């Protein structure tokens, strides 16, 4: 059994598709063990997307560079310094800003292979690569280059923990132990006994 964190980003709340997104996890059988609506501040978001986690920041920059390359767009038009770490910091700042633009809905989901299953349902980070049937594939069509031009992150509606380490860290950041609940679902009773 695993627990993982998803966060419905401000755009998902503002578009009014909270129910449609959560239904997808519920249908699979995943159990909602924590959920709330909060307007996060910079302090919390800096812990969620830590600027000191260099491999995360550089990875963000590298993926941005890769997107430009694939699209055949000159990165120099957008960024003065082509160091993936510097670009990563820039994208991370935009990401934090955009997550502060409205309330978000962190939700903890529990089930066997919850982390992997949730990532599968959420889909690829880049909307054009997210398969139909996934949340990002069905509800988003943004582009890295368009987003960067407007000094914002790619709008892909939802966050999901990437691995067990991230999940544990992130759940602890967004929820106190008292906000996480233990109860039995129908799925547990009929599919897992
Ligand atoms: O969210 P996910 O785990 O799929 O991707 P990530 O690599 O951890 O990046 C975190 C978030 O940064 C993404 O969900 C995007 O909103 C944003 N991002 C971006 O704006 N530009 C990129 N080239 C990569 C990510
Ligand atoms: Mg991630």
Architecture overview:
The protein contains ten helices and four strands; from the N terminus they run E-H-H-E-H-H-H-E-H-H-H-E-H-H. The protein has one domain (2-191): Alpha-Beta Plaits (2-Layer Sandwich). A four-stranded antiparallel beta sheet has the order 2-3-1-4. It is globular, with a radius of gyration of 17 Å. The protein is α+β, with helices and mostly antiparallel strands. It has helices at residues 10-14, 18-28, 42-48, 54-71, 84-99, 114-122, 135-139, 144-149, 164-174, 186-191; strands spanning 2-8, 31-35, 105-111, 158-160. The protein binds cytidine-5'-diphosphate and magnesium ion. Residues 60, 63-64, 67, 91, 95, 125, 144, 147, 153-154, 156, 159, 162 line the site of cytidine-5'-diphosphate. Cytidine-5'-diphosphate binds at residues 60, 63-64, 67, 91, 95, 125, 144, 147, 153-154, 156, 159, 162.
Layout of helices and strands, plus pairs?
Blueprint: E1 2-8, H1 10-14, H2 18-28, E2 31-35, H3 42-48, H4 54-71, H5 84-99, E3 105-111, H6 114-122, H7 135-139, H8 144-149, E4 158-160, H9 164-174, H10 186-191
Helix pairs in contact: 4-5
The structure holds cytidine-5'-diphosphate (CDP) and magnesium ion.
Tell me the number of helical segments per DSSP (H or I, 4 or more residues long). Answer: 10
Total count of domains? 1
**Helical content (DSSP H or I, runs of 4+):** 40-55%
As a percent range, the share of strand residues is 5-15%
CATH topology: Alpha-Beta Plaits
* Average of the residue pLDDT scores: 96
Bound small-molecule species:
cytidine-5'-diphosphate, magnesium ion
**Structural class assignment:** alpha+beta
């Amino acid at each position: 059994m695993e627990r993982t964190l998803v966060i419905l980003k401000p755009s998902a709340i503002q578009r009014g598709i909270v129910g449609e997104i959560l239904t997808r996890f519920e249908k699979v059988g995943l159990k909602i063990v924590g959920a709330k609506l909060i307007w996060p501040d910079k302090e919390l978001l800096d812990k969620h997307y830590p600027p000191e986690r260099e491999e995360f920041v550089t990875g963000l920059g590298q993926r941005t560079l890769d997107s430009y390359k694939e699209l055949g767009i000159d990165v120099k038009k957008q960024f003065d310094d082509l160091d993936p770490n510097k670009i990563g910091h820039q994208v991370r700042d935009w990401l934090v800003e955009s997550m502060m633009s409205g309330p978000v809905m962190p939700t903890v989901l529990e089930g066997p292979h919850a982390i992997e299953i949730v990532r599968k349902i959420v889909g690829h980070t880049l909307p054009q690569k997210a398969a139909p049937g996934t949340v990002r594939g069905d509800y988003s069509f943004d582009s890295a280059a368009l987003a960067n031009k407007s000094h914002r992150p790619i709008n892909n509606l939802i966050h999901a923990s990437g691995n067990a380490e991230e999940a544990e860290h992130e759940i602890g950041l967004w929820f106190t132990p008292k906000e996480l609940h233990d109860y039995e679902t129908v799925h547990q009773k009929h599919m897992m006994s």
